[in-house]
Amino acid sequence: MYQALLTRRYLTQKIMPLLAVAAVMLCTAMVLIVWSVMAGFLTSLLASGRTLMGDVIIQWPVAGIPYYEELIEKLEDDPMVAAGAPTLETPGLLGMPDGATKTVQVVGVEGESYDRVTGYADTLWWRPLAEPLPRDRERQDFRLELPEDYELAGEMLTKIDRETGSPRAAVVLGIEASRVNRRAAGGWFEFGWYFMPEQEITLSVLPLSQRGAAITVEARRFPVANEIHTGFYEVDANYALVRLDALQRMLRMHAAQRFEEGFEFGEVIEDEEGEEAFAQPVIVGEYPARVTNILLRGAPGVSPDALRERVREIYQSFAAGHSESSPPAPPADRVYIQTWEERPGVRTLVAAVKKETALVLTLFGFISMTAAFLVCAIFWAMVSEKTRDIGVLRALGASRGGVAWLFIRYGLAIGVIGSILGGIVAHLIVWNINPIHEWMGRALGVYVWDPSIYYFTTIPSEVEPSKAAIVLAGGVLFSVMGAIIPAMRAARLDPVRALRFE
Questions:
Q1: Which residues have C-beta within 8 Å of that of residue 35, sequence separation ≥ 6?
Q2: Are residues 334 and 367 in the same domain?
Q3: Contact criterion met (CB below 8 Å) for 467 and 39
Q4: Exposed e or buried b per residue across 64-97, where buried means at least 16 C-beta atoms within 10 angstroms of its C-beta
Q5: Residue 11 in this model has a pLDDT that exceeds 50
Q6: Rounded CA gap, 244 and 156, in Å?
């Protein structure tokens, strides 16, 4: 019996407090790791979303924005704007080499300016690699075999014709758009029964009048120069980039001569000698080339929201200066000026990820409250074991509040120690999460984050000090909450009865 009493006291005094510390540590570490990975995923998603979109977008669909070169020059003169690029967007249909078809969003771009705004050249997938990816131990990635000069292919959306040797306007597809590329478990892409940059595709678009009426269907063959991988599914699966001037001609949005009103081609008239001849048009001006979007990147330190407001001011001045032009610039109160996150498709996706992150954190927060119940159970047992000691303290003059505060401080100490240890554990795991994941794959054959399913080849993570402080404070708070009820029970014990407790 004496041995059992010693064992019980040892468990109460030594083991159970350590279990409470371990519970707080594990709960704190769990929430920190989950929050860091979810925050890293969201940050990576947002960073990928900015690719090919810039920070702020000026948009006027269908009719397009004329005099866009002048507008971009005005914008780039402002210190808040780092770079601007014109783009032209329209739905299109791709005819693949195998006869399959796919609807895509066709984007006409100028390679150089587009790269300054979006970092487009960095998203080109088929470029030579000096070293394989971490999980490519057998060097299966096809990019390791590409020649050194291949990385320039597609950068300017131009490809040299094999037969004539002259440059041709080319198309660059999203890596998922062709449906023949497969993501390997190691994080790279394997092409299927043909390699897209060695093929040609047929691109069909529908030119529209400024009133939105269809004119005709324009189809043209383009060589595929490269493919892009942004990590943003909507872009990788549904975008096709083509040179801006080529798409402008297909959509009848290139610069063109403007003839005298009322002139009809094919009209037969009598010339000065009295003979029949076709009437010649009288050129009275020029229709300017148009684009549907202008993408802008802010200067370092300028937020997208601040840039948007400044762009609105500049555009108002631009539109006022061209209000009497023919054609006039789109009115400032009707043109769309948005940050990239405010675009309809992007806004829905980002909002969904943020809500899912909040939901997961809420669930794990409730799970972490088990630490409070465990601390409560341990402290309840400690109060029962320390009943005589509590009676001695009360007999010596300790107040009820003093006894309660003693146990609350004990819970506070457990919470502080457990939270600090949890923070250290989380820090070590988060900063080494990919090596740990690689080890699990090699040793156990377990791959939680499979790059063939997820769009990021490595597990993203981001630790924000403010969020880490919230989690650590929560661990301390739960521990204190768990100690309150046992502390109140200890404070209410009758000193006489406590001294008689066996």
A1: 361, 467, 471
A2: no
A3: yes
A4: bbbbbeebbebbeebebbbbbbbbbbbebbbbbb
A5: no
A6: 10
Element (H, E) at 337: strand 336-339
Check: CB of residue 15 under 8 Å from CB of residue 356: no
48 within 8 A of 41, measured Cβ to Cβ: no
- Same domain assignment for residues 359 and 437: yes
410 in any annotated domain: yes
Distances (CA, A) of 366 to 233, 371, 484: 32, 10, 19
Same domain, 32 and 66: no
Number of domains in the chain: 2
Take residue 100 and report the two structure tokens written for it: 């399959």
Q: Is 106 inside any structural domain?
A: yes
State whether 32 and 60 are in the same domain.
Answer: no
239 three-class SS = strand
Measured distance CA(406)–CA(486) in Å, rounded = 11
pLDDT tens digits, one per residue of 369-402:
777 777 787 777 777 766 666 666 666 777 777 7
Q: Say whether both 363 and 416 belong to one domain.
A: yes
Burial of 322 from C-beta contacts in 10 A (0-12 / 13-18 / 19+): middle
φ, ψ at 287 (rounded to 5°): -80, 125
**Does 281 fall in a domain?**
no
Return the closest-CA partner of residue 195 out of 178, 220, 218, 208: 178
Residue pair 347/341 in contact (Cβ under 8 Å)? The answer is: yes
Tokens of 94: 């791709």
pTM score, whole prediction:
0.71
Q: How many CA atoms lie within 13 A of 348 on its CB side?
A: 3
d(CA 36, CA 31): 8
Query: Which span out of 39-48, 183-192, 213-222 was modeled with the highest average pLDDT?
Result: 213-222
Residue 149: Cβ-neighbour burial (10 angstroms; 0-12, 13-18, 19+):
exposed
> Are 33 and 138 part of one and the same domain?
no
In a domain, 274, yes or no: no
The token duo for 114 is 């587009």
Is residue 147 reached through a cis peptide bond, with omega within 30 degrees of 0 on the bond before it?
no
Residues 337 and 412 both lie in one domain: no
Domain span including residue 37: 2-46+352-500
- 204 exposed, middle or buried (CB, 10 Å; 0-12, 13-18, 19+)? middle
Q: Which of the pair, 291 or 137, is modelled with greater confidence?
A: 291
